[in-house]
Amino acid sequence: MSFLWPTSPAESQPTEEPRVLHSLALRSVTVHGEQVIKSGPDLYGHEASNLKYIAANTTIPVPRVHKVEQGGDGKTKKIYMDYMPGKPLNKAWPEMTEDQKQSVASDLRNYVEQLRNLKGTYIGAANRGQAVIGKFVAHGGGPFDNESQFNQFLFSRILPKVPDTFRYHATKTFKTNHEIVFTHSDLAPRNILVDGGQVTAILDWEFAGWYPEYWEYVKAYSDFNAVPKWLDNVDMFLPRRYTEEIIAMAYLNHFSH
Known about the structure:
Phosphorylase Kinase, domain 1, transferase, Aminoglycoside_PTrfase, kinase
């Protein structure tokens, strides 16, 4: 899920009648005056921690978090964030010039390099939050102290649905010696805001955190139909690597829904 957020956040409690930006199942994103509120009974509360960490350790443009509300069960119910200017890349793409596309790819390359320069010692969200896998069905677990534990988590959620004849080959692809780096986990065009040839924001850090170095590639390549020739541009900020992992995860994800 990705959203547009207002530019000048109000520090006080919003009082205006809310305007709905997005609503899906029990989740919603609404504008209240100059604030945006993401709300729902099943939010991943680590999104706020991820955003704060990225804001403090990179120059990546992200929404500033103002407040997080929790229910009596301790789960995150609402996150108050900035509005960020720009248009989702998947909507802006048809009208962009080749120079603008190249410029956006250059911005993304810079931001991805910053993420991959952040090295971790566990697998999970910021502040030792849970790792989350899946796209249409999300599963949380951990945090995990090493990649072997993470792999076992992957297999426990997916392998029961994989035909027996393919289990052996599917599991052998996953190694345990990848570097752990900070990862957005959903660098799809819908989560990238642009203005002309400039990236103005990267949104939706709900599934972000410390993951094996191939994880960003797996997630970015999973949305290859988003815009025409998107993969050619992905190659500019995520140069081709981890082919085995991408193919293996694409296969396993087929059985994970």
